[in-house]
Amino acid sequence: MKQSNDTFYQENISSRVSLRLVTADDLPFIYATWLKGLRYGNALYKQIDKTVYYSKYQLVIKALIGSGNVVVACLKSDPETIVGYSVSNGDTLHWVYVKESWRQLGVAKLVVPNSVYKVSHITDIGAKAMKKRYIFDPFL
Questions:
Q1: Number of domains present in the structure of the chain
Q2: % of the chain residues with pLDDT over 70
């Protein structure tokens, strides 16, 4: 019996990637990828003055990380090498990021909790990936 591509990728990715909780050393990477990803991935955020955006939105991210659940996907062979992460709180996904070379391999499925059905932040790419499975609710 032929296995589906999803099953193949999930098994393959699970042999190379492990999940762990966030550490203080991960935070610069998370802030940088989230801030840049949201600013350049959503036309609305591009309209905010650059200085204002980077100084103020960092505070929003800090609050969400502090009150949420952060799951990091890293290489099994090198736990300090992050390939993706998610920030969620209960049923709401605040942000998910996967390095470009690791996309479409199932990393996002590994880091996003099954309880999630709403998203609070969205990019143009994220909107396409949602496939009507999630409710966009930007009201924190």
A1: 1
A2: 91
